[in-house]
Amino acid sequence: MAGVKHKYAGIASSKRPGLAARALRFADIGERWRNILGGLGLLLVGLLFGWQAWVVFSRTSTTNQADQVVKWEVHELGEQVTTIRQRVLQATNSATVLTALTSGADDARKNAATILKQWLPELVSVEFFSADLHEVLTSTFAKFGYAKAALLIHAHRTQSAAPLESQLGADKKRVLVMALPVMRDQVPVAYAFVRIPMGSLLETFQRQTLTRARVDLRQGDGRGDAVIDSIGSERVSTAYVVGTAIPDSAFRIAAIPDELPILFSKNLWVMLALTLAALGPSLFLLYAGIFGWERARALLPMPQR
């Protein structure tokens, strides 16, 4: 009887080490999966921070590029506006045009327009008005044109050329327009309303290219402007951007980068630090989950004694 008890006791004691080893293996597998899942979670967080760092960098780079394009456009279009205004002023106030206007003939204005066409071969049309703008002030502005009347009245009030701007022509294409006095001995003898093609100005504007930003050529004072032309992205709008005015004209250049979500800091270095802080532990946990803690600890620097 005692022998049987000893026999069963030996069998039970022999099973205990196997059960303990099996339990340890299950615990080790569970710990490894926890490390792997924790590493994957941190890896996803690190990738999120890395994407945000790219968004911040991309937005900064795109904004800088758009700012350079705006500066270029304002400079180049500003020089072109100055050249156009000077040519129109010089031609309109030339001695031959002035002589034709003041000849007193019935077709004086028609002759002056013919002579001006010789000075400006690209001229679309020109209209001359009396020095007191009687034809304008007594007309119905709705028929005469509010924008046209406003430019002529501006030139009359300032006794100088109104800012260059654009209007829709008869063929629904935009043309450059300019109202200016025709002067003799610093006294206006008439006012001219000149229309010339806008193609060269638009061609200059279109020379620049953008991928992740939009630059608009607008007309107005920065509030509710009319968009004349655009380059770059079509996913954003410059409606709430005041823009930069082009001197001696009603034109403005406005730019805005594509809108990408910035969920955390706008500081690139902060986002890079967060990315590294998440990716480092995630890779360590994944390594420990796959190869075990003993091998993972071997990767850590040993403390110096």
Question: How would you characterize this protein structure?
Answer:
It is a single chain. The strands form 2 sheets. This protein has a 4-stranded antiparallel sheet. It has a domain at 84-159 and 167-200. The two termini are 62 Å apart. The chain is rod-shaped. The protein is built from 9 helices and 8 strands. The chain is an alpha+beta fold and 305 residues long.
Q: Determine the structural class based on helices, strands and strand pairing.
A: alpha+beta
Average residue-wise pLDDT:
85
Q: How large, in whole angstroms, is the Cα Rg? A: 39 Å
Helix content: 55-70%
**Total number of strands:** 8
Please give the largest β-sheet. 4 strands, antiparallel
Number of helices: 9
Instruction: Give helix and strand order, one letter per element, not per position.
Output: HHHEHHHEEEHEEEEHH
Unreliable residue runs: 11-15
How would you classify the quaternary structure?
Answer: single chain
Q: Beta-strand percentage?
A: 15-25%
General form: rod-shaped
Q: Give the N-to-C terminal Cα separation.
A: 62 Å
Strand order in the largest sheet: 1-4-3-2
